[in-house]
Amino acid sequence: MKTDIDRLMRERELDAIILTGGEEFNSARYYLSNGARITHGSIFKVVDKPALLICNRMELEEAAKSGLEVMTDVELGYYDRYKETEGDGIRATVLHWSDVLLRLGVSAGRIGLYGAWQVNKTIALYEALRAGLAQYELVAEAENTLIEEAMLTKDADEIARMKSVAERANAVMALAWDYIAGLRRAGDNLHDEEGKRVTIGDVKNLVRRELMARGLEDTDMIFAQGRDAGFPHSRGEADMPLKVGQTIVFDLFPRELGGGYHHDMTRTWCIGCAPAAVRETYDLVMEAFDISIEAFGLNKPTCLMQEAALDHFEKAGHPTTRSDPSTMAGYVHSLGHGVGIDIHERPSLSHLRRDDICQIGNILTIEPGLYYPERGFGVRVEDLFVVDEKGELVSLTPFRKDLVIPLKGDSGAAQ
To answer: What is the domain range of residue 383?
Structure first.
């Protein structure tokens, strides 16, 4: 949690941290600025002291919503340094950061660097900082970073926001179900009330509109049908007609409009009817889902949940990434991951990562699946869970887990 930032800085022996970046969404800066909608700016924080948010003049009012101390780059002399370096933005930033650190009482020490920027610009800035600020040791953590560690558990306000996103995402999933259920069978295809053949793109457009109406935005949902559903991250083809009886993997992971907290949920559907092989596979995936939840335990390694799913699938004769790391069929991914401002956060629910444990305040997915593209189908089911204050795993995804969407008025369809 954010309240852990100073403790984490002390553990890493960091005298200060800097969060910076360009105009693109920056989860680290968003997190420490309490969601301030700024497109430029950096945050400087000295250990055991309040953070300082530096912004440009155009964003002063928005930056003030962070609740942090705010100063403009003009006040802190950035443009004087820009003139001094004859318009060299990288050199000006190095001198400017030196000015800010000295102003904050940090004349030497270990400085942690975080944020998001274009790779080429990040490398150029880092090299210039190392050359121009030799009195500081610049720390760039590769994994288990301070920000990732803080984001690992959510506070009450974060959980409340994510519950709100969850409610809205579940409502949109229900609308998509109802829309499909109201279509009319035309051979193997589906038509709407006007007789138009319905495509995957039509469903996605409906979902995007309904998300927007609820203050959420699509982050490139998965709606993959048939063979495409056998590839876990296939997005689906917009011009592909909806088909009766083929699996659809619908993975919806929207976030608050403009950047913010996510929800993450997946359902597998067959419209009208489901082949016997799909039903059998679906039942096995649902068993794995339940078994992995049973393996949950507060303060236990998250990998135990993945290993329970692996045991189940392997016992049933399916390849997994443990039994065959190169497999392209069967169970080909980890059981889940943390979710928050980033769609993929810690903890990891993987058998390859054994240091993450289940903690109060975790928000994580459980999403077992089996994939057989050459057999023309894939199956995945996913809920988002919070580890509540009692240490219990509570789903934020109550939407039904029925495999078949019955078509209204389609009395001849096998259910």
So the answer is: 152-405
